[in-house]
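Give me structure tokens for this 772-residue protein.
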Amino acid sequence: MTDPHFSPSSSDLVAQMSLEEKASLLSGADFWNTKGIDRLGIEPFTLTDGPHGLRKQISDPDHLGLNESLPATCFPSGAGLGASWDTGLLREIGVALGKEARAAQVGVLLGPAINIKRHPLGGRGFEYLSEDPELTGALASAYIDGVQSEGVGTSLKHFAANNQERNRLLVDAVIDERTLREIYLRAFEIAVTRSQPWTVMSAYNKINGTYASDDAWLIRDVLRGEWGHEGIVVSDWGGEDDRLAGIEAGMTLEMPGNSGITDAEVVAAVRENRLDEAVVDREAARVVDLHRRVAEHRDPDASYRAEDHHALAYRAALSAAVLLKNDGTLPIAARSRVAVLGAFAEKPRYQGGGSSHIHPTRLSTLLSTLREKHQDALVEYCAGYRIGDPEPDDQLLAQARAASAAADVVVVMAGLNDHEESEGYDREHLRLSSAHRALIDVAITANPSTVVVLSNGAPVEMPWADRVPVVLEAHLGGQAGGEALTDILLGAAEPAGRLAETFPQRLEDTPAYLNYPGTRRRVEYREGVFVGYRYYDTARVTPQFPFGCGLGYTTFEVRDVEIVRGAAGTDEEIVSVRVENTGERVGSTVVQVYVHQRGAQPMRPEQELKAFAKLTLQPGESRRAELALDRRAFAYWGTNTRRWVVDTAEFEVRVGFSSRDIRSVCTIDVEGEGDPAPTAGHNTALGELLDHPVLGAWATNLRDVFVSGQGEYDPSSPEFRMVDAFSRELPLRGLVRIGALVSPQELERVLRVLDGQATADDLEAFTAGARS
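Here you go.
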């Protein structure tokens, strides 16, 4: 009889299984559920979408899992959550999502989605958090902590480099390792090492020729080996390419179920000695670990208060709203006559399309809440356009023109329609539809006091921006977006968001313009690390609105910035900054710290975000924020050593309110180790040896032999400059082949010195630059 107080380890349970049972655990039972093993007490559990709200289907799953789902709180989509810059808020939302998942008996929530916004046409940009990996990673970590504090797992996705929807099932993302490490893996690294998501979901695409689901380097070496991921890796739905290669790489759970087809492949491969059964045991034990963790927290009586979660969704919508421009028109004065234009005011665009589409518990609209709260004045509404129709309607525009002319303030609700941004396909351009552009033009022409409110999950072109006094980017604000927008417009609450991605003036200005979306099967990331603001700030390209920007209804100043050493035993530098609310209203701001390396080699972006803090201050209040910079804040990925490297250099620490609004700059000297040159050999350049402790004088002597042939030293002479450059860049093999300046024997002696294999005679030969 089994001792009821004894809980066997997962490995012990696996040891009691048949090969068929072990293989069965490595794929789903159906679209949303795993398999269990009743005789061993291993219960199946449910996984379900999504990042900004629970999407559990209530009918039989369709082949894409898009059928009707249970009512759940619809929070702002990822773009809006990213604009919050608020880790505390993301943790609260995570807790709420965890509670709703437990109440629905869901074991793992498929989120957060954290792929970097490489290009604004990416169809799933609304679902992702930011163009910056540090901001993305910090927000994702807070979200994971919140969800998992409720005993529900998360699935960090899509690992990795899923940066476009076009051909996402087939495309090969060709990315150099430095760019991959610094941009596209960094957010995953932060989230995994800080918060240990119970699962990580692989991407559909290939990375440098290998499908992400089968990539042993990505999963085994980096995710598990370097970062210490303890949970399972689950495939995106239908994303596994080679099941056997995936299992060997550490791809644990294939979803959805496939009636046991790949289970049979696994069993056959083990019996034919094409797959080591120990590998199957390893992954099966990981699945058992997860099953037991889910079962431990299962609560059939779990519930949540929908009213409380709606209130949280309201706060989130305020933080998702970014006031990009305001001449004082907002807040709207009391008793002002308001014309509300645009069908989105009545039928809001509040979330993106695809697998994350939520059935909200309730839904507020701008029109109804504005009429309710602005009762002392006329609120006239005109649809202005037909939802989903890109073409202007002359009759609707005429009505809008008349209403605008009669109003004190015009509010235009514009943005992107559902079909213009969705999972599964990319956007075709950055423009608003002709119908929305025409409505904006009508309003501006009829009334200069026009407020344009945008409902969209990604940047749009704004050729009209200079003509309007107010632009409010609402993003996709979730189910409470109507209430939040009303309170922002009337001044009962502030727009608390800051852009988490750069808004370009035109498509041609974007860093990946020449390399997106690639061919049908291949896309090259030739812009390298210069993604988003890293490109705009380095190339001095003026965006429409910069990364990190946003206005409120008060003003702030940065004062008394200093850098101090962190606590003993840490490698941190602390940026201490006092932030003061210099306005007349309570408000929030985001203080941002960027790092710039002077004289960086290899070339680095002009500046990179490395720390941030969101503060809410009363009028006249000041508070000191302390933001930590560890060694990684100064590091880049060394292509020679294939590790993180810090140069000995002077760094600027820039503090401000956006990438283009820097208020204070401090300098700091950092001791580093540098990235050593590649292994020396025949192709080492002569110029690389000019400062060598043993060979420096020898190399200088040879360089002078070249230059002396040009007569009197004249650094402005084109001939001198050409020969000097040639000598510095000449590979050592060229010294033998050009005029026999060095014998083959002497070259071998030089190479022994460079390789650390020099004899005493070798070292003596190069003393004071002597040559044999």
